[in-house]
Amino acid sequence: MGFNLEIFGSAFFMIFLAELGDKTQISTFAFASEAKSPLSVFLGGALALVCTTFIGVVLGGAVGRFVPERIMKFVAAFVFLGFGAWTLFQAIKG
């Protein structure tokens, strides 16, 4: 267990690009536009992202010891497709 700059860079750029314009950023934008303390919004949002990332790393590391990477990728793809289908259904439904 150590630091790998290549993995760090890949994780940073993949997550950074995925998070641009998502609902978390839009929520943070809304909070900051109304808040009297943008620093508090920044620190709260940053801590929330650190906590959710920590949970993902811990669970991913634990599950990764027992479930092959290929299966994890299929499950992740299925979950994302499910969220996409649900969002599309809700948009069509009105």
Q: What characteristic shape results from the CA principal axes?
A: flat
Q: Regions with pLDDT < 50 over 5+ consecutive residues?
A: none
Instruction: Give the rounded overall mean pLDDT.
Output: 91
Helix/strand/pairing class, anyone? mainly alpha
Beta-strand segment tally: 0
What is the count of helical runs? 4
Percent of residues in helices comes to over 70%
Question: What is the straight-line distance between the termini?
Answer: 49 Å
**Largest sheet data:** none
The quaternary state of the protein chains shown equals single chain
Tally of individual domains: 1
Helix and strand element order: HHHH
Radius of gyration: 17 Å
Strand content: under 5%
Index terms:
single chain, 94 residues, mainly alpha, flat
Description:
It is a single chain. With 94 residues, the protein is an all-alpha fold. The chain is built from four helices and no strands. It has one domain. α2 packs antiparallel against α3. The mean pLDDT is 91.
List the helices and strands and how they pair.
Blueprint: H1 5-19, H2 23-34, H3 38-64, H4 69-93
Helix pairs in contact: 2-3
Can you describe this structure in just a few lines?
With 94 residues, the chain is mainly α.
